[in-house]
Write a structure and sequence with these properties.
Radius of gyration: 20 Å
Strand content: 5-15%
Number of strands: 9
Largest sheet: 9 strands, mixed
Length: 347
């Protein structure tokens, strides 16, 4: 199984068919989340990038590029703070692409969800970190839970919309995960995604956000049990290779597809892989470079990751399957910041 996954990863690197393009459409955000790893803030230091930035890229796709298989994901910051977000979605759909969004849910109303879906929103991912005390503690707002909880009903009113909830597991919500699962099921949630926090951004040095190695093992066992149960579709995120739990806690084997099938355009026009990557692994800028040329001819850092075989990775026995883990877990000099496989070994 792992060898088949390794072969598939090689094929993805060779073909590098773009299927997801993230646009960091704002740095502004209406929350101040405890674990945020981005540069977003309530009042950004620079204006939102103009819609023309994105449209110039979308219009320039090669003639043989299948736009209908590529999702343009508007994210930030909080994309709904953009007053033109409906126009953004309409222009994406007009050009034949799919439209996705990552949101904290604070600005959603029934009318807003209806408008987004009518415009053509295909997918949405919303943060939902546990019951009210735990969620609001993480998000830094007394209103956040109620707003996100209400949005679940509005999503369910649109059976054609693909959506999931994303939960950041930490020491505060760890003991309530099963009760929370039951709550999600009772609310009609069908898809649930769990991730753990890396020590970077605002999360660096925040012990309450970091699971112990023993808790991490318990979490893997819990995800496996929920998946066997089959009452809600649960996946562990792309936070790295998890050894014996590969093929058990996700619908697919671990692979970091940043620069393979996923690209992003940052707020300043920088071309990168995944927006979770905070180190400077940029591959040009749309203001000086052609995005599609960069996608086709650059991204060598992403498609051949032997340069990551350093430090703790140098002699690791699972390197051939892990390939150094997620690039968002690498520092500016290529050093590894967090390794889930090591957590499992040390538990």
């Amino acid at each position: 199984m792992l060898e088949a996954g390794r072969a598939a990863l090689r094929t993805e690197a060779l073909e590098h068919k773009l299927t997801q393009l993230f646009w960091e459409c704002t740095l502004r955000c209406n929350l101040s989340c405890r674990h945020c790893g981005s540069d977003c803030r309530k009042t950004a230091g620079m204006a939102d990038p103009p819609l023309s930035d994105l449209l110039g890229v979308l219009d320039g796709s090669p003639k043989d590029f299948d736009r209908g298989r590529c999702v343009i994901i508007t994210t930030g910051g909080e994309p709904l703070v953009r007053p033109d977000i409906i126009q953004v979605g309409a222009e994406i759909k007009k050009r034949g692409y799919l439209w996705g969004m990552v949101t904290n849910g604070m600005l959603l109303t029934r009318e807003k969800v209806d408008e987004l879906v009518k415009t053509g929103l295909d997918t949405v991912a919303m943060s939902f970190d546990g019951f009210e005390p735990e969620h609001n503690w993480m998000r830094g707002s007394e209103l956040s839970f109620k707003r996100a909880d209400a949005a679940i009903d509005w999503f369910n009113e649109h059976p054609g919309l693909t959506w999931d909830l994303i939960t950041c597991v930490n020491k505060r919500n760890f003991d309530y995960l099963d009760k929370f699962k039951e709550y999600l099921i009772s609310r009609g949630v069908r898809q649930w995604r769990i991730f753990t926090v890396a020590p970077m951004g605002r999360a660096a040095g925040d012990d309450e956000l970091m699971l112990s190695n023993e808790q991490f093992v318990q979490l893997m066992n819990y995800i496996a049990a929920v998946r066997r149960e089959g009452r809600i579709k649960l996946n562990y995120s792309c936070e790295g290779f998890v050894g014996p739990y590969e093929g058990v806690v996700r619908d697919h084997l671990f692979r970091c597809v940043a620069g393979l099938t996923v690209a992003s355009i940052r707020y300043d026009g920088a071309i990168s892989g995944c927006l979770s990557i905070r180190s400077d692994y940029n591959q040009g800028n749309i203001h000086t470079d052609n995005f599609w040329d960069a996608w086709e001819n650059r991204f060598r850092l992403y498609r051949n990751r032997k340069w990551m075989k350093t430090g703790e990775c140098r002699d690791c026995k699972v390197w051939r399957y892990c390939q150094g883990g997620g690039m968002h877990l690498r520092g500016a000099q290529g050093e590894i910041l967090s390794c889930n496989y090591l957590k499992l070994k040390q538990a």
